Amino acid sequence: MKSLPTLIRLKQEQLDEKRLVLTRFETEAANIKAMMENLSIEVACETEAARGDAESSFGFGSYIASAKARRGGFEARLAQVNEKIAVAADEVADAFREMKRFELAQSLADQRAVAEAGRREQATLDEVGMTAYRRARTPGQS
């Protein structure tokens, strides 16, 4: 089974690629969450500024509407990315199971090879022992 190590390497590379895609999606989700947090901080600062200044409070309603629209956009993007994360996580799990299947097959093949080598060695030792026994039992031979 010389092809199994090659298949294992191929499956490992595929798994690594899928993990990379998953990591990119997770990073994108983290960035969106950070932008949402920054927006919340910005809204809090603007709310505080609007309380202290009558001129600032004039355009505050428009600002809040805009901020809500931006938050809605972030939430929609985050939902899309979370769906992609779920799909990518499933693909990573499938790729991992596939790779493990080949690794298990390789392990079993290795165990069979070791058992076969042990069986052959034992057969050789048995033959040597039988030959020595026959020689010892045969009269007139030294």
Tell me what you see in this structure:
- This protein is mainly α and 142 residues long.
- It has a single domain, classed as Helix Hairpins, CATH 1.10.287.1700.
- It is 94% helix and 0% strand.
- The protein contains 3 helices and no strands.
- It has helices at residues 3-52, 54-58, 60-137.
- The longest helix has 78 residues, at 60-137.
- The mean pLDDT is 91.
Which key phrases capture this entry?
mainly alpha; Helix Hairpins; 3 helices; 142 residues
Number of discrete domains: 1
Helix content: over 70%
Low-confidence runs of at least 5 consecutive residues: none
Largest sheet: none
Shape: rod-shaped
Tell me the β content.
under 5%
CATH class: Mainly Alpha
Radius of gyration: 35 Å
Please provide the ordered H/E string of secondary-structure elements: HHH
Question: Topology, pairings included?
Answer:
Elements: H1 3-52, H2 54-58, H3 60-137
In short:
The protein has 3 helices and no strands.
